[in-house]
Amino acid sequence: MDCVGTASCREVLGQEPVNMERLELLRNVCEDASLKNVTYSGISRFVLDRIFVSDKYKILFCQTPKVGNTQWKKVLIVLNGAFSSIKKIPESLVHDHEKNHLPRLSSYRKPEVKKRLNSYFKFLIVRDPFDRLISAFKDKFLQNPRFEPWYKHEIAPAIIQRYRKNHTEVRGLQFEDFVRYLGDPNHRWLDVQFGDHIIHWATYVELCAPCEIKYDVIGHHETLRNDAPYILKKAGVDHLISYPPIPPGITEYNRTKVKQYFLGLSKRDIRRLYTRFQGDFKLFGYSKPSFLLV
Predict the structure, then answer these.
(1) Spatial distance between the Cα atoms of 108 and 113, rounded to a whole number of angstroms
(2) How far is 203 from 64, CA to CA, in rounded Å?
(3) Number of neighbours of residue 12 by Cβ within 10 angstroms
(4) 3-state class (DSSP) for residue 267
(5) Measured between alpha carbons, how far is 81 from 79 in angstroms, rounded to an integer?
(6) pLDDT tens, 58-95?
(7) % helix / strand / coil in the chain, to the nearest 5?
């Protein structure tokens, strides 16, 4: 990777061994036959729907919601020529897939899909799995900044009806209800009903098929300040665009927050949740949250 010897350049180069280590871990875990049931998903239409394409620069980006994906979409929208800079992109357009000039890999014919998977630069971003679930719960069921009423009025009641132990309780969806749903081995019964809305809490394995698709870079939300410029450099577009500024502290893992959210949940529910997301923890080097299980 060509780079001039500046301080920022050395930081970018410093991510090379980090990424190599992440990819080696991914390969080793993928090869572990005892984990196949939590690491393999197949390259389905659901996966191809998650992958955004820049044909101009031969880039594939797999969307994993709640890890800064909105900003990466903006980067690709600019690279695809729809806008001259990130600042000019209306927020309402970013997630409007009819108008944002971000084709999904699923929109191509099978031979074209295969060609792009084999030859394009491919990357995804991950985050501590439980931290991400807390973010999804807060964003969709508590704050809902994008005014998506179906989370509160359709999805939440369905989860409450099936998983709340005390049906006389009239509070809205609680994190405990959410965890029971996600940890249920039969969660797919509701997943089908919810459709693509499940992308906000589906596993990375289900979203991006990391054992079937050979990604070039795995970025971590926690180290995005270093990973973002490295990804742009590896993709060969760092001279064209920069990742938007990252507010201080926003990507840091907060163990206290995680512990607080899981406080009072049964160990059985937490273990079932970990079993579901075990592949994500192991594939991407996140420590098992033993502090929640003791």
Answers:
(1) 6
(2) 9
(3) 21
(4) helix
(5) 5
(6) 999 999 999 989 999 999 999 999 899 999 999 888 98
(7) 55, 5, 35
Q: Are 57 and 66 in contact (CB under 8 A)?
A: no
- Whether pTM exceeds 0.85: yes
192 is written with which tokens? 């089908």
- Is the four-CA dihedral 255, 257, 263, 268 of positive or negative sign? negative
Alpha-carbon distance of 187 to 191, in angstroms, equals: 6
The count of other CB atoms within 10 Å of the CB of residue 238 is 18
Which residues, 6 or more positions from 41, have their beta carbon under 8 angstroms from its beta carbon? Answer: 47, 205, 206, 209, 211, 212
Tens of pLDDT, residue by residue over 230-280, are 999 999 999 999 999 998 888 989 888 999 999 989 999 999 999 999 999
Whole-number Å distance between alpha carbons of 59 and 288: 32
165: helix, coil or strand?
coil
